[in-house]
Structures are given as C-alpha cells and as structure tokens.
Amino acid sequence: MALDFVAPLATWLAATPLSALIGEVAWIVPAVQSLHILAISVVVAGVFLIDLRLLGAFGESDGIAAYTRRYLPWVWWALAVLLVTGAIMIVSEPVRALRNTTFVVKMVLIVVAVTLTGATQRPLKADPDFWRDHKTRARALALASLTVWVAVIACGRWIAYTQDPGA
Amino acid sequence: MTALWSALERLPWSIAIREGSYLFPTIETVHVLAITLLVGTITIVDLRLLGLTDSGKSLRALSAQILPFTWGSFCVATISGALMFASRATVYAGTAPFQAKMGVLLAAGANMLLFQVILFRDVAQWDRLAPPPRAKLAGALSLGFWIAVVVLGRWTGFVMS
After folding, report:
1. Which residues of B touch A45 (CB under 8 A)?
2. In whole angstroms, what is the distance from residue B54 CA to residue A77 CA?
3. What is the pTM assigned to this prediction?
4. Closest alpha carbon within chain B to A149
5. Is the pLDDT of residue B32 over 80?
6. Cβ–Cβ gap B37/A48 under 8 Å
7. Is B65 close to A30, i.e. CB distance below 8 A?
8. CA dist B158 to A14, A22, B152, Å?
9. Distance from the Cα of residue A40 to its chain's centroid
10. Has the ipTM of the complex gone over 0.95?
11. Which residues of chain B neighbour A154 with C-beta distances below 8 Å?
12. Cα torsion for A9, A15, A21, A23, to the nearest 10°?
C-alpha cells in the first residue's frame, strides 16, 4: 500500500536539481543521516529521563518541572534539526520515503509522540506540581510516550527495509 | 585473524542473522535505540563537565543518576553490535569506517575509565563549582569521540548496503 496521491509529488521532487545534487555528492546522505541520529540521541535521552521521572523512578527530590525545564528545550531544538535533516533525506530519495507505508506510519506516530510530550509540559506552566497530584495520569502518559517514541525510532530504521517493490 | 572472522561467520546464529529477513533489521533497531540513549545520556554529563549547562545538581548527583543508563545502553549496543558484526565478520573487519569506529570506541572507553578513576578522585572539591580544565578536556574528548562513533557507524552501514 502506498499513498498514491503523493506519487506525482515524489516524482516531481526526484526531478528537482536539489535532489540530483544530493544524489551526486556521495557524502551528503550519510552526513545528514549521522546528524539525524545525533539529534535523535538528544530526544531519546531527554524524553527517557522525563518519562522515568514521571514513572517515579528517581524519587521526589527534584520536581517533574525541574526535569522538563532541564531537558525539554533541548528536545524541541533537536526536533527542529530532525525536521530539517529528515526533509533533506526525503528530497534526496522522495520515492523511497513518500511511497512507503512505514514512513507514513512514522509521521503519524511523530505527531502522537510530540502531542504526548507537549501534554506533559503544558499543565506545569500553571502548576509545577500538577503531575505530583495526578500520579496515575502521569504514569499512563509516561508509558504511552516511551512506547510511541520507541516506535517512531523503530519505524525510522525499518523504512529502509520496507520499500514498495512497485515504487 | 581472518580465520577467526570466518569461523565467527559460520556460527549458527551468524548464519541465521545473515540469511533471515527480519533478524538483522530487528537487531539494528535495538542497536540504534541503545546507541541514541548512550550518546544522549553521556552528552548530558559531557556538557556539564564542559561547564555549558548548570542543572542545579552537583556533578556527582548528576553522574550517579545518568551514567548507569549510559553503561546499560553501552552493554546493549555492544551485544547487538557484536551480533551484526558476526553475521558478516570478514566484510566488516576489512571495512575502513568500521576499523576506525573500533579505534575511536577504544579511545572513548579509555577516556571514560580515566575520567572515573582519576578525575573523580577529588571531585568533592569542585562538585558544585565550575569544572577544572582537565574535566573540561575529558568532556570535550568524550563528546568528540562519541559523535565520531555515530558518524563512523552510519558510514559503515552506508558502505555495507
């Protein structure tokens, strides 16, 4: 299954001079992929530590708001880097990405993951102790966030292995 | 060495990883998850050593919280990496970016060991202060080594595929 309405877009993108340039200069793709992985490292570590704190793994000496203040600005900046490096990879091989079910699933999961992480941060502005007073919801949110972020990374790796044979 | 690598390739699980369709990408996914957690967590400590971040925590408290995850994910990354290596040992062993990655890994490991054995001896004196130059050096080296490991790892995958 591929999203057929994106096929013309993929074909058009593949014909652009930018796509050709990225294809010709051999080191661009692995360099951008490396940057992508480094940015994922920042997201993984930040989300992992915040979610473990939400799950109660680190005790109460530092409040949850201290964790989101410490790590979330890095996570949001890293996501901006991921968007840019991801876009470059799509331009370099549009058909590989856009006509790929795993890629589409990954994009949907990213929206879910970002929403969950945003939902962790939002109530803390008005009340830094919000999650201390809503422990069950905090745990559910943390488990969902960890699961979806891991799924995002797994999908990212599997894009290369689930090419549409007709593409 | 070549005899050892080809013996490794002939082990039953090496054959299974090489010939199955799902085993290699599954192990690779575990490897990516482990390496991102490893690099992300050690970066937190490295930036603190460089004096670029101030979490309000002492260096010892931060390290005690973060480094167990770094070591844990290092173990997972090593095991998953070894399994991928075994599936095509002779090819990996002869690949330049892979050889360079192993060299940088040794350097990163030596730096980490030196950091824990020497640097932490008098940490009590500067635990909450700006880190001394040798701590900054250890942080900068670690950051550089691990970035190089990621780049060389990606490069290895790129030339192997």
Report:
1. 36-37, 39-41, 43-44
2. 18
3. 0.93
4. B33
5. yes
6. yes
7. no
8. 21, 15, 10
9. 7
10. no
11. 29, 33
12. 80
